[in-house]
Specification:
Blueprint (H helix, E strand, L loop, with lengths): L11 H14 L4 H15 L2 H12 L8 H14 L3 H14 L4 H13 L3 H16 L10 H14 L5 H9 L6 H4 L4 H4 L5 H22 L5 E5 L2 H10 L10 H17 L5 E5 L2 H10 L9 H11 L4 E2 L22
Parallel strand pairs: 1-2
Antiparallel strand pairs: 2-3
Protein name: Preprotein translocase subunit SecA
Organism: Streptomyces caeruleatus
InterPro entries: TPR-like_helical_dom_sf
């Protein structure tokens, strides 16, 4: 599906089938592709088929990158078509596992929220926030929905602001405040006959829509291609002409960091790194009916890997290991 395809024109069943076929061609990316396929099946209304894809991933002999995310999505989907008891059991399992990724926390908390389990939703949001953000001065962008979701649920419960709510307010950059966006009384204004109230609500909805559009404006990162030392040696040995692009592995790493810093300074958002392999690159070149020695394929290959969900966000979070694989902290390696 093209990024600019209007949602109402998407054949979700056909798109899910296409993604399943693509997963068969690229088994190393099957997790990301099948999760996208399951999302399309949910949108098409075929929730049992989406559950079958989640089960397929969870029963696979290949270890998953994020099994907690798959379980959270399965739980949310199950609850939507009547399997509440199983969904609740999975949600409790996700909470007990205490994943370090914010996405599973957001999904299970929002599942509870959407079924009016507001107290449990607040507990889940709070558990995730406490685990992931205690003593973190600069919360990663991916954790913002945890703070915003917690603020929303607590606003609906009518409880006073605490430090986390105040923190969420400072992160929110839209012209309409979080308190306004999360005001339970807003829903009443939608049924009002007062034009002024309706106009005010339209302004609030536009602000929310702007936030969603900002988050979705780039579906995958602008990614720079990275080769490990072993893969780069194999690549240059097989295709000597590429030595012009990669004089040495050390210079390759320096070029990556320099390119990303230059992109960041120019204002380019959503940057990332994708790691290539020689067999994958050769398969990509074959699919383009081109020779792997064609250096113009390299940025196209990077973009394709990013579109398949293979990108790692840059720069790494504070205290994280460096992207280069040195096992050192980023700030002591390439920062």
């Amino acid at each position: 599906m093209r990024p600019d395809t209007p949602a109402e024109n998407v054949d979700h069943t056909a798109e899910a089938a296409r993604l399943e076929r693509t997963a068969g061609l690229y088994p190393e990316d099957a997790e990301a592709l099948l999760l996208q396929a399951a999302a399309h099946l949910e949108l098409s209304g075929d929730r049992p088929a989406a559950t079958a894809l989640y089960d397929r991933l969870l029963s696979s002999s290949t270890p998953l990158d994020d099994p907690h995310l798959v379980r959270a999505l399965k739980a949310s989907n199950l609850w939507e078509y009547g399997h509440e008891a199983e969904a609740r059991a999975i949600i409790e399992g996700v909470r007990a596992a205490a994943p370090r990724d914010p996405a599973p926390w957001v999904i299970v908390a929002e599942a509870l929220e959407s079924h009016d389990e507001l107290e449990q939703a607040q507990e889940t949001f709070t558990q995730g926030v406490t685990l992931l953000l205690t003593d973190v001065p600069e919360p990663p962008y991916a954790t913002h929905p945890l703070l915003f979701g917690r603020h929303r649920v607590r606003r609906m419960l009518g409880v006073p602001h605490d430090e986390w709510d105040t923190f969420a307010d400072t992160l929110h950059s839209m012209p309409v405040s979080l308190d306004e966006l999360h005001d339970p009384k807003r829903v009443w204004s939608l049924g009002s006959d007062n034009p002024a109230e309706l106009e005010a609500e339209i302004s609030r909805l536009r602000a929310e829509l702007g936030a969603y559009r900002e988050a979705l404006s780039r579906p995958f990162p602008v990614a720079v291609l990275h080769w490990t030392a072993g893969e780069l040696a194999e690549l240059v040995a097989a295709y000597p002409s590429l030595a012009v692009e990669y004089p040495s592995h050390e210079e390759h790493l320096q070029t990556i960091e320099g390119s990303l810093r230059e992109l960041a300074s120019s204002g380019t958002p959503n940057l990332g790194i994708v790691t290539g392999t020689v067999p994958s690159y050769e398969a990509f070149a074959a699919s383009e009916l081109a020779s792997p020695e064609d250096a113009t394929l390299l940025p196209q290959y990077a973009t394709t890997l990013a579109a398949r969900g293979r990108a790692t966000a840059w720069p790494p979070d504070r205290g994280a290991q460096c992207w280069c694989g040195s096992q050192r902290l980023y700030r002591a390696c390439h920062s």
